[in-house]
Amino acid sequence: MDTSTPPSATSGSGTDGGPRRGSASADDASRAASPDPAPADGTSLVVSSEPVAPDGGAAAAPTPRHLTRRVLLGSGAGALALVGGTGVWAYDRYVRDKVEVSDVAAAEDSAGVTAVESTGGAYTGTGYSSSTTTLTLTSTATGSGSEALAWYAADVQVTDATVIRSAFAQDEFGQSITENPSEIAAAHGAVLAINGDYYGFRDTGIEIRNGVAYRDAPTRTGLAMYRDGCVELYDETATDAATLVDQGVWTTLSFGPAVLVDGAVPDGIEDVEVDTNVGNHSIQGEQPRTAIGVRGDNHVVLLVVDGRSEGYSRGATLPELGQILADLGCTIGYNLDGGGSSVMIFDGELFSNPLGAGRERATSDILYVAG
To answer: ∠122-127-129 over CA atoms, to 5°?
Structure first.
């Protein structure tokens, strides 16, 4: 095993808080979004599913920006025959932007969201440090040929959990809205960023970001990051977004499965399905991976495993992903969106090597260390 410490890093917040429940499968198409709960007070807001403009009025009709990565529109007869009913449905479901919140920054301001500000930030030979953050980067390569495997880890310790934040593509919330992760990171001055749960590909799950609830459609095992630094697994179907915000949840992620529970890799995780949408890639087998691991309160590991590049990195199975996180000192591990989306960005540059080609792919959201 060849392990090295790359030239820079940044920090985040994680926590101990043992998992409430184990991993669970998620049938993406099986559950419709539930009604939004009433707005919570203080630093929380439950956002309506209707498009919202910054002034609270109706948002302008969205204009398509990108083809979602999940759907390939070919040429000729393979172009989904957009004049037919099936093609129209597919375009509407997977390609057309569906903006529900047109100004996320305004939504956070309206909710009275507050987050700590860091000072004295400096990049070091192995990462980043500031008044709130200590971040250490490592890169690891094992094997050779068809067994080669490479991964990148950011060990992040923070003094305040709000240093670790989320951001959406185009500063909008909705389906099929995408942007390159490096562009999202740059827009928010991120020290380090990884791709998130690609919430925009589905309409299920509980999505709370930076203290604001954007979606309340409980479906699967999620990950909750609290303002007090605790991070834990939870059953979305046993609660709702407003309750979680009231309990101090800062951010939730809705993908999975959990790949590490109480320090052990759960049985059966190779059989879990997160999505059954048309065009979705399997999460089983050797794949590029993105994950978050928990070492303790305000202490997390952000991990990216490259893959689909023989001779450089084959990708990891879900059990392998859990074991890597365990070897990095984590007791909880949670799988995020992977495949061509998997990427780590540090100091404005690609730190990982997506698909061995150094090219990132547009996605709907990132998780990042603010400073």
So the answer is: 40
pTM assigned to the model: 0.77
HSE at residue 198, side-chain half, CA atoms within 13 A, is: 30
Element (H, E) at 182: helix 181-187
Q: How far is 121 from 188, CA to CA, in rounded Å?
A: 15
Q: Who contacts 61 (Cβ-Cβ below 8 Å, separation ≥6)?
A: none
C-alpha to C-alpha distance for 179 and 68, rounded to whole angstroms: 10
Q: Render pLDDT for 181-228 as a digit per residue (tens, 0 to 9).
A: 999 999 999 999 999 999 999 999 999 999 999 999 999 999 999 999
Residue 238 CA to its chain's centroid (Å): 22
% of the chain residues with pLDDT over 70: 72
Could you give the angle at the alpha carbon of 149 between the alpha carbons of 146 and 150, nearest 5°?
145
Nearest CA to 305 out of 318, 295, 294 is that of: 318
Which amino acid is located at 227 in the chain? R
- Token pair for residue 307? 């893959």
